[in-house]
Batch of 4 targets.
Target 1
Amino acid sequence: MISRGRALAFAATVPLLTRCVFDRSAVRVGSKNFTESFVIAEIYAQSLEATGMHVERLFNLGSTQIAIAAMRRGNIDLYPEYTGTALIDVLHLPPISNSHAAFEVVARAFKQRYDILWLAPSPMNDSQALATTRAVASQYGLATLSDCARAAPRLRLATIQEFLARPDGLPGLARYYGGFRFREVRTYDIALKYRALLEGAADVASAFSTDGAIATEELVVLRDDRHFWSAYNVAPVVRAQTLAARPKIATVLDAVSPRITDHVAQTMNAQVEHSQADPADVAAQFLKR
């Protein structure tokens, strides 16, 4: 999950970490470079500010590797991370579909290897997915990935280039489920996959289960009936040194994380992507509710 379908044009505000002078009295909250990460990082930041903590925002860092490097250098103190991303992209381990088991593995490994601690995860599970329209699902009898594997020779797939190469992308699906030999596969820019689906240029699109488009369009996410894909629960990851100095961070964020569900994340993503709301405003509305 290095590239996500929810990038915003925040490039001009990317912090140049090698040249920044950091406020060491502040809790420095980071984010990656897509909508959901911006919004959840804002939720963390505003929650801490509500208790009187001084927070410095260092958002739009880029990839997972950049965020981890910033943590290890002490440039940021915490940011939202996904269990599946940590498992596959950082630790290079096989997918684990069970949320609790995936969390236990990444929490133990991050503490041992990086001195980074995982706080309570959210129930929100932003897993990889395949999505289709209700009309296509009805036409071909699609409800699960097994259904899609069998029907694939009649279907057109819209996806991003990365999905065609990742072990938990199309190659992994084909090995694990069998089938998945689509009639046609076309790659698109991240933002154009759903347009191809909704305009009838594709029958199935690769997706993430909390994409804003799923909340706003007539789409169906196909159920992973054989539990191939890893759990991708989001949680705050915090430098152990930071948490030792400010243990209240855990108390505050552990109270907020359980409120972030799949539906909540879909709705917040849709507000930013389709209604052009500011991530900070969306986070504030969430906390107010």
Target 2
Amino acid sequence: MSDARQMLDSYPRSVNVDAGVLAAAIDAISDCAQACTADTDADLSEQNLAEMAKCIRLCLDCTDVCTATGGVISRLAEYDPGATRPLLEACVVICKSCGDECKRHAHYEHCRVCEQACRRCERACQELLDALK
């Protein structure tokens, strides 16, 4: 059981969404932010830095969006769907863009790993959005 799920299970109020779906999204978002941070660092170490510029930029953007989204969806008190939905939608979009770019560089193992993390995050955020409808 993940830390996110344990925290959700210990929450003193009821949660209005499936705790498993929410925990999966929190975990995927956290993993994606970490993978994008590490991929950015690895990209900066590649020989042809100019080739990696777009990947670096998207990984930085993805890290920022995932970090903000993960923070907001982890705080359940006074949940505000008006703020949560756009963040999750942005997370889906940036994870798709970043995953697509990382796929272009999948000959580098770090980009392949990052692409997979982005794809998992994209799916988990979309599943949470669907559960919130």
Target 3
Amino acid sequence: MKRQIEIFTAGCPVCDPVVQLVKDTICENCEVTIYNLSEQCESKICIKKMEEYGVKRLPAITVNGELIGCCKNIEITKEDLIKAGIGSA
């Protein structure tokens, strides 16, 4: 059974090396789909999947429909911004 890998990218210099790393690592049992969110695919399936998987930062990778550990729970919050001094006079 093929392993389904989805890569969410912004098509930028930060994301491109990760996309290449995945491509260099896959085997014949891997099927890769790349969603460039800066282009927002015509069908908008990329946006729907991004929301479904809880993608909060890019690049992000799913394997068989699950966001892999290194891509989870990384979200910028208002609390983080305030702690950094943003919004303080």
Target 4
Amino acid sequence: MPKYIALMKLTQEGIKDIKNAPQRIEQAVAGMGALGGKLVDFYMVMGEYDYVAVAEFPNDEAGMTFLLALGSLGNVRTTTLRAFDREQLVELVKKVP
């Protein structure tokens, strides 16, 4: 399944309600599952971003649907990257003319 890395920043609303963040994360995991996705890893980080998540979705459309739903809640803003693992890198490089 394609992997995606989401870099997230808390909004003012999200930080104001930080005590409910663990429940919101669990709800997000359930939402991913409903779209055929799964959370691979999740971190709270220091620096420019507040959270980093690695997720798998069956396709870009399912991933985008999830991100739209997540963003509509107003607690985080995301920057998302489509990720390719080492094995995929090897296969892609073989195709380079």
